Every structure is written in C-alpha cells, then in structure tokens.
Here is the input.
Amino acid sequence: MTGRKELRGDGGEAAELVPGREDDRAVGGEAAGPVPGKEADRAALGADGETEADGTAHGELLDRVFLSRVVEPGDEVVGRWVREFGVGEVVRRLRAGVVESLPGVSAKRWEGLRARGARAEPGVDLAVAREAGVRFVCPGDVEWPGQLDDLGDARPVGLWVRGPAGLRMWALRSVAVVGARACTEYGAHMAATLASGLAERGWVVVSGGAYGVDGAAHRGALGAGGATVAVLACGVDRPYPRGHTQLINRIAEQGLVIGELPPGDHPTPSRFIVRNRVIAALTRGTVVVEAAHRSGSLVTARAAQRLGRHTMGVPGPATSGLSAGIHELLRGDAVLVTDAAEVVELVGDMGELAPERRGPVLPRDLLEPAARRVLAALPGRRTARADEIARGAQTTGDDAVARLYELRSLGYVERHGDGWKLTRQAMISVRTGRR
Here is the structure.
C-alpha cells in the first residue's frame, strides 16, 4: 500500500509482534510509548511466557490492526464477516491464501483483499504507532466508545488514537461542529463562538480538522481552554491538511486526534465521506455551520439523523449559496440554533435550558396596566381632556386623573390648562414600543 516505506522508518526488516503481556498492548486510555528494551523482550517472548487470555487479546489486537490496513473504513461486507465469523477467522482466510472468497464479494475483489493482506504487517504498524505516541483501541476495550456500536456492520474495526485523554469518557459529553471548508467570516465566527461556548460549559467539541468551519471550531475550543477531538481521514501521525499541521499537533497535545486508517495512510475523497459517520456516531449531536447543497458536512448531519442523534443548523443569509444546505436541513428535521446555550438545551441533561429570548425592556413596560391604558388613550399630537382620556382607557374620570398625575411625575405627560398632552419622551417611547 501507499506509504509502506515511510512506515518502516529505518528500511530494515521489522519482525511481527509476538502476543505479549497486557501492559504491552497499545490500547486503553493510559497507553504509553515504547519502553526501552521492551521491544526486544517482546520479540523473544514465546507462548510459554503468557497466559491464554493475554495471547488471545493480543492476537485480536494484531488481527484488527491487520484489517485496518487491508480493509477500507466503513466496509459493511467485511463488518458482517467479522460479526458472523469472528475477526480471527476472517484474517486467517485472508492470510492463508484461501481462493474461495467469503460471501458478498466477487472473486476479483477477494483477490484484491488478499493482495493487500499479503503486504500488511500489523507488528510494524503497532511499532511505528508507538514511536509516534499513538495507540490502537479495539471494540470491547475500556477506552472504546460504545456509541460507535450503533453503526452496526459499518463500525470501525478499531481506532488509532493520539493524545493523552480517554476517548470513551470524552465522547460521552461531546458535540460535533462541522461545516464548509471555504466558509465566510460569518461562518468562521459562528463556529468559533459556538465551540468556545460549548467548551466553557464542559462539552467536548468534535470536528474533522479541515480548513474553514472545522479549523475555526477546534481553535474556538482550544482558545477557551477546552477539549476538542479531530477525526482524520488519514493516518493520525500524518496531519492533513498540511496547513493545519501545527493546529492538529496542538490538538494532539491538549485533546485527541483519532482515525481509522493506520499510520502513514493518506486521505482520499471517499475516506473523507465515510469518516463523517464516525463524527456523527461519536457525539450526542451535530451542528452544521454553513454548507452548500453538496457539502460533505451534510453527510455528517444525515448520518446523525439516521443514528437518532440531534441535528442542528446555524442559519445564514438566504442569498448565500453556503447557507442553502443548512436551510434545507432546517426545513426538515434539524433544529435551528444560534449559540451554545441552545445547543446544550438539546443535547444536555434535563433542565439545561437556554435563557428566554426577548427584546429590551422599555420604561413604559414597567408601568402598571391601568397606567399603560391611560397613556395609550392620549392622542399622539394634540391635547385631550380628562373625560375623553377616561373613555379611551375604559375607566372613570377620577381614575384617569389620578393616573395622569402619576404619568406626569414620570415625565410621560404634561398639563395644558384643562387638557393633557404627551411629552416628547412619551412620543419616542410609544414609537419604539410599536416597532
């Protein structure tokens, strides 16, 4: 496969790992890099030096690393094989050179999988990953996010994880913020503001590490001192896009960088598309900020809808093509959101409600209802007698006079002989209240 020479590093022969002890596995939330001398010990360790449980677990780890090199992410046919026959049997058939294919693929495709399998070296992949500070997390591991199992046969065979945090715990309280790569300043501002607000409320922001909305979301979370996860469509040791190398490295230091592809593997258009299902499944909800009709972020939103996750959209100008996809979502089942509080109201716990939105409170709003009725009964540009005002306010003459003196003390009306007239302040207040 592409990139194998880069993976070998020194160009020498790398022996495949022999099943070893549990603490040698690159899995779990506290996996560390290589320990001096351990690789030699592991190469020399035979079956007599391990328990049956350790050997089985390490064997499945190597088998899943093998499949991550051989199979494209999201392949539901291979996922069905793993579910029906077990990962060990699938790998055995691919490695043994069995001519007869497993069900669901043509002979040509089976031959292609076998050819990729012949070049796969899971032990080398694990060794290179450890050198880069990367661990491999399998389904069933302590760190595995159980919500990924909702993908069924499209579930990843495993995830390569770079970063110090525990993926499972972070994923439990996470929100995806995705959108257009070629976003506007408005889109970048909204993504960064949403991510910052979510981070300040203790939520993990998940995105794809791309230019535009993704990058703005990651930066917003990092800038707030919060947590963020980048899900890549390539090896997690190879930041992509290149222009985001510094950002992705910072995410790996302060958050997590994850992906399905082994170290050194490169992105392709189809890998970006299938990557989006992981973003959708990993999080409680997906927020889309700016997306045209053919935007890949809409793939994430639709995957979230199929999985029963919350789908949200930030509206934009009706004249902008980058808002067309968002508005189409909002015409369907997506929910309109404008800030982090509204997002948390949907994805958070019961009682985490967004504040009630209302316009500014005007001074006349603080008047007693009876005084407001008298004020409303005064003509706009002329003087009126108290009895006329009383009829307009549907009250008695005495009550109207009492309210008029109250309004006079507050600066709303003034007396002219036997009549009453609105002041300039009252005129402005009435006009403002009618807008």
About this structure: Residues 52-70 form the longest helix (19 residues). The two ends are 66 Å apart (CA to CA). DSSP finds 19 helices and twelve strands in the chain. The CA atoms of residues 267 and 401 lie 79 Å apart.
